Amino acid sequence: MVLEAAGSPLQATELERPTPEPGQVLLRVRACGICRTDLHIVDGELTRPKLPLVPGHQIVGEAEDGRRLGVPWLGWTCGECRFCTSGRENLCDRARFTGYDLDGGYAEWCVADERFCFPIPDGFGDLEAAPLLCAGLIGYRAFRLAGEGERLGLYGFGAAAHIVAQVARHEGRRIYAVTREGDEAAQAFARSLGAEWAGSGRPPEELDAALIFAPAGELVPAALAAVAKGGVVVCAGIHMSDIPSFPYELLWGERVLRSVANLTRRDGEDFLALAPRVPVRTEVDTFPLEQANEALAKLRRGDVRGALVLAP
Ligand SMILES: [Zn+2]
Ligand SMILES: [Zn+2]
Questions:
Q1: Which residues surround ligand 2, an ion (CB under 5 A)?
Q2: Contact 29, 107 (CB under 8 A)
Q3: Where residue 276 falls among pLDDT bands split at 50, 70, 90?
Q4: What was the pLDDT predicted at 68?
Q5: What is the pLDDT of residue 149?
Q6: Which of 37, 105, 120, 275 makes an SS bond possible with 32, Cβ 3.0 to 4.6 Å?
Q7: Which residues of 116-128 are buried (b: 16+ CB within 10 A; e: fewer)?
Q8: Residue 187: closest CA among 212, 216, 155
Q9: C-alpha of residue 278 to centroid of ligand 2, in Å
Q10: Distance CA 23, CA 25 (A)
Q11: The pTM is what?
Q12: How far is the CA of 265 from the centre of ligand 2 (A)?
């Protein structure tokens, strides 16, 4: 499924099977998760994709020797810049991203730099494993950067939050899920995964940290207002609407506001080792590959429980 131009539907296209270059592995795609970032690319909010582009960066593929490998968003880094050489390859100036700078997994076949692939843990089916590769990894990085506080707010209860909630409960954290007003399905889903409270507006207790997964800038001052002194607010998405101006008082008291960008291979190794121990159970809604446009439309409407996955 190919994006020819931002703002247009993906086109079902017959492409040559890609040929791996040295260091790359050829994978038969068994599942590819759909991420909100894909929607930002297709809708033109991320403005410099390679075109034409095969989107998709949560790929579970099978190598020719039978190994199951996961391909994440971070597809290549230079290994030389000051970020790469200081454990921050997620910030590499020359990084290439799967399904953005490189063709991704909305396809039957793909190639990937093997150094950036992860073995898929046993015990996860192909479809269930796919959302671990971005919703899981980025969610986990955001969760780690939020610190050790007990009371955790999750703003937007989609694919990432439904995984983070399970990891957070496993660590004994208390979860407060903030959804859009009236989204009772998402609130019930959050409670079923251990949220102590789920609703819209301000949680009934002060938070120690808040993770913002919804791409809505107005949630930033709302989350700052909900966290205690010394609390952390992490914006976990790659794109967000503008943040409205807010009084300094909301940041005062050593509150921290930060974003999370991309992932490191270390995040992937840590999270994929942890996921089977929780154990994380992803809830997936599967579409055939050729219905990628319908699946993206469903995500755009916000009408998804858990994660969307394409199956060739
Ligand atoms: Zn993603
Ligand atoms: Zn670099």
A1: 77-78, 81, 84, 92
A2: yes
A3: very high
A4: 98
A5: 95
A6: 105
A7: bbbebbeebebbb
A8: 155
A9: 33
A10: 7
A11: 0.96
A12: 13
Which residues does 98 contact at the CB level (< 8 Å), separation at least 6?
56, 57, 59, 71, 72, 73, 74, 75, 104, 105, 112
CA of 83 to the centre of ligand 2 (A): 6
Residues of the chain with CATH 3.90.180.10: 24-133+282-311
What top-level class would CATH report for the domain 137-259? alpha beta
Span(s) in the chain for CATH 3.40.50.720: 137-259
Q: How far is the CA of 96 from the centre of ligand 2 (A)?
A: 10
Q: Give whole-number Cα distances, 239 to 43, 115, 140, 187, in Å.
A: 12, 27, 18, 24
The ligand that comes nearest to the alpha carbon of residue 77 is 2
57 alpha carbon – ligand 1 mean position (Å): 6
- pLDDT for residue 103: 98
Q: How far is the CA of 74 from the centre of ligand 1 (A)?
A: 10
Counted residue by residue, the chain has a size of 312
37 CA → ligand 1 middle, Å: 5
Among the bound ligands, the one closest to the CA of 84: 2
Beta strands at 256-259 and 227-235: parallel, antiparallel or unpaired? parallel
Domain 24-133+282-311 is in which class?
A: alpha beta
